[in-house]
Write a structure and sequence with these properties.
Helix 1 runs parallel beside helix 3. Strands 1, 2, 7, 8, 9, 10, 17 and 18 form an eight-stranded mixed β-sheet that branches. The protein has a seven-stranded mixed β-sheet with strand order 5-4-12-13-14-11-15. A two-stranded antiparallel sheet has the order 3-6. By secondary structure, it is of the alpha/beta class. The chain has eleven helices and 19 strands. 32% of the residues lie in helices and 27% in strands.
Length: 413
């Protein structure tokens, strides 16, 4: 065998790149597999909560993020019908304020930091099958007509919840209630720089935020059946979505008056929020594949990175015991408990917010919030904007105690 590692990470997005970097910084031999070429655009709200900023505190990341990311987001808002509201973003204390950065920049920044930490990157390669051996996982990769095989003691799946390959955890069938996601960038927007508003419209929800280089990101989810009803004959889906939003959100209409679309719209889906498996037989899951909240709370990137921190802390602390199936089960159980403690509330809150927002007459109730504008701040807090998950900037300094004898033995064979 060649290419034998302590850990194999599938997926080079925020969850995968964070996990790979943290393990490599702790002295692990890590290989990361990513099927797409970077830089790449991605359907994503692009906002990163202040509570995730400790995971960007390494100098190579922190300096670049500070230069490129959009302005501090100090207010949350609501654009629903004719209602335009704003309230304070809940404070994350010493961590400051959240900011947004386009995925074409963020993903490159994180993956470069992982490579700098010693991660062996295979890109663009796709994992097509796994085989479980008593002391290792074997993973077959494919790129064009080439194939390779990697071996690792631990496998971390961070390849997203809508992956349609044989490695997907679930096979979904199309349904009228499916949420389809769209995202675009605009220039010359009138949106206030410190404001991140929630957009509420029949059958869907969305958000806007200032991101890098003076751009505003608009991302949204819309039910499949609603999109079909509002889409004109021969009209592009993205054009129908934007027209639907502007017709039902006065705040969005004003924010985009005179703005110009940069590039093309992106789409993805279906989006299926919820809690899923966190580990199976020595294979661990992080990011959206482990669970995701409705995008209405703008916590996707933060949950992905924070879940990787939770997992890696347990893996590193138990590095000497990874040859034991019992230890792997204990790590999986501890990770599952902490994952649910960190994210279950925001997933449930997001589901409730999304259900209310997508009601046909939701905009009619929005004016009532003018009597209680602090409800927006409370909702942002419930969604996790001020919940501290990463309790220290670094989870390990230097190399682990003696490395991992089992993995080292595999590399020597």
């Amino acid at each position: 065998m060649k290419n034998i590692h302590d850990a194999l990470v599938i997926g080079g997005g925020p969850a995968g790149a964070t996990a790979a970097r943290l393990l490599a910084r702790a002295g692990w031999s890590v290989v990361m597999v990513e099927k797409s070429q970077f830089p790449r655009r991605k359907v994503c709200g692009e906002f990163i909560s202040a509570t995730s900023l400790p995971l960007l505190s390494e100098r190579a990341i922190e300096d670049a993020f500070a230069r490129r990311a959009g302005p501090d987001v100090r207010r949350v808002g609501l654009f629903a019908g004719s209602t335009v509201l704003a309230s304070a973003m809940p404070s994350a204390g010493r961590m400051g304020w959240g900011r947004a950065l386009g995925r074409e920049h963020l993903d490159l920044l994180l993956i470069d930091a992982a490579i700098g930490a010693g991660v062996d990157l295979w890109q663009p390669w796709k994992a097509v099958s796994f085989e479980r051996k008593p002391d290792r996982h074997l993973c077959r990769l494919a790129k064009d007509d080439d194939t390779e095989e990697l071996a690792a003691r631990i496998v971390i799946r961070a390849n997203g919840s809508w992956e349609k390959s044989r490695l997907a955890l679930e096979n979904f069938r199309a349904a009228k209630s499916d949420l389809l996601a769209f995202k675009a960038h605009f220039r010359d927007s009138r949106l206030a720089e410190d404001l991140m508003p929630l957009l509420v419209f029949p059958g869907g929800y969305g958000g806007m935020v200032h991101t890098d280089d003076g751009r505003v990101s608009l991302s949204c989810c819309i039910r499949r059946d609603v999109l079909e009803r509002c889409r004109g004959s021969g009209e592009k889906a993205a054009d129908a979505v934007l027209r639907h939003i502007l017709a039902n959100c006065e705040g969005a209409r004003e924010a985009l008056r005179g703005a110009r679309l940069e590039g093309s719209w992106l789409s993805a889906g279906p989006i299926r929020p919820g809690m899923r498996a966190s580990s199976v037989d020595g294979m661990f899951f992080t990011g959206n594949i482990a669970g995701e909240a409705h995008a209405i709370v703008a916590e996707g990137i933060s949950m992905a990175m924070q879940s990787s921190w939770l997992l890696c802390r347990h893996l590193i602390e138990n590095g000497e015991r990874l040859s034991s199936p019992e230890a792997l089960r204990e790590i999986g159980s501890a990770y599952r408990r902490e994952w649910r403690a960190a994210f279950a509330t925001r997933i449930r809150a997001a589901a409730a917010f999304a259900h209310l927002a997508m009601q046909p007459k939701a905009a009619l109730a929005a004016p009532l919030l003018k009597l209680f504008p602090d409800v927006l701040t409370w909702g942002a807090k419930l969604s996790g904007k001020a919940k501290e998950v990463v309790t220290e900037h670094k989870i390990h300094h230097g190399r682990p105690r003696g490395g991992h004898p089992a993995a080292a033995r595999l590399r020597d064979e």
